Amino acid sequence: MNNDPIISVRELSKRFGSFVAVDRITFDVARGEIFGFLGANGAGKTTAMRMLCGLSYPTSGSGTVAGFDVMRQGEQIKRRIGYMSQRFSLYDDLTVLENIRLYGGIYGLTRREILRRAVTLLDRLQFRREADTLVGSLPLGWKQKLAFSVATLHRPEVVFLDEPTGGVDPVTRRQFWELIYEAAAEGTTVFVTTHYMDEAEYCSRVSIMVDGQVRALGAPAELKRQFAAGSMDEVFRTLARGAKRTE
Amino acid sequence: MGGFLSFVKKETLHIVRDRRTMMIALLMPVVQILLFGFALSTEINNIDFAVTSPNRTEAVRRQVERIAANPYFTFKGYIAPNEIDNALRSGRADAVAVFADDYDRQTAATERGEPAEKAVQLIFDASNPNNAAAGAGYMQSILLAGRQTGAAAPETRLLYNPQMKSAYNFVPGIMGLIFILICAMLTSVSIVREEETGTMEVLLVSPVRPIRIIFAKMIPYFLLSCLNLVSILLLARFVLGMPMSGSLAGLVGISLLYLMLALALGLLISTLANNQVTAMLISGMLLMLPIIMLSGMVFPIENMPGILQGVSCIIPARWYIEAVRKLMIEGVPFADVLREVLILAAMTAVLIGVALRKFNDKLE
After folding, report:
1. CATH code, residues A7-241
2. Which residues of chain A make contact with B204, given a CB cutoff of 8 A?
3. Which of A58, B10, B157, B363 has the lowest CB atom count within 10 Å?
4. Interchain contact A17–B (C-beta under 8 A)
5. What is the ipTM of this complex?
6. Contacting A residues, span 177-196, partner chain B, CB-CB under 8 Å
């Protein structure tokens, strides 16, 4: 297996006019890791993530995702990643199966392959009976799990999750993280932003962004030691207290 | 390519699932054509008239029968001179024809070429000036024709629309309006909806190129409009009995061009609007109003002040409606609408260019 980092970022910045949204961030993510990308609202997480997904061009600095340059090879990157946004990203007026077919088709899977993976996916989620249900009529927790499974349908090398568990109850959040662990165990790297500090504890490593900069980086246990804190929540509060930006 | 087809299918499903919108999109043209064709018209119909005549001679009765036989007029009976004012005020009559008591002698004198007093007076309720003027015109011509004065009477011929059916005039206008409505409004709303719900972002992260996503969105609306084009043409030909004497291929061709223009407009609007309501308002205010007011659909362009005539030139519907009118009603060969086609083609090219540029700017 390839030991190069799957995501490698050096001095990456994004400016909007005079506002520096992301300020020279540098970090690596190893293959198969669950990387927690933390920060308060407005700290620059989403902007940084958009650059890694090829949705937005960096102003300066460099970075690679799955071995491709974020400046020049956005197309190749897009083929190798999955993405799930904080807003619900499936179509309410399509059925579960139609949503799966659409995303399978977008990533160029054959019909037979889509059907095969759809069956596996539905079985794993115990959704088989809901295949022809309109997604709009499913409970939110189910939708989020389905959205995650659809985002990884094409077996991407990295999957980016932008606050995937917002507004979901604790039980469903736990189930959602089980899906994340399964994906990671199968070799997919998971890059996840979250607000919930208990979720940060589940990650292999986390980075914490404040005012557009990465202020802390390491395994949760290391960070707790470094900041002499009992929980990730305390670590986060210590760092966030110094923030200049507010929402 | 597989990705593209999945998209087209998905967009089609969106439209089909949204029954209400689809019914509106499919039925609106039919309802409008039937409304304008049968219920609403700018013709003056059903003018109630009464007659005042002291001596109901044979000649007077013949004239009254002639008017009464005309479909535009309804004869309400003879009334006394002192009832005229009351009849008009109460609305029992819209017009009164007053025959002089020596009507026979007077007309005979005129026919011999001798000077004579006026033999008939027409009194109209002019609270609606258009109706009164048109009605008076009709009645005069009926009375004149009834006297057969021979060579001095001019002969009027109405070309292309001899029965002066106002529906003929409205059909091209409705086409100009409907296509913009369906293509531009629905497309822009559907693009903005995806941006609003967040699904657009997921699509943009996928390897499918943004422009393909947009094209896939346009195709079902384009097909829906083609369906409308067919239903409008069939209704116009077989229900309204329009002549359609021009080049049918030309008519379809220019309509397809106009559809593309409308789709480009829809894309442009989607880049200007941040939510569905704004998209709807922009389409409504910026597209529909000018089309109804300034395209010549309702008000003749020739009657507008110079500035408005200038403004009407940049409204695509004006050129489309003009061309369709020529092709459908006058039946000119396609070469005679070349000017309109070129103008529309230029507008389409510019709009597509601007819309694509704006769209790409918005993505970054």
Report:
1. 3.40.50.300
2. 55
3. B157
4. no
5. 0.83
6. none
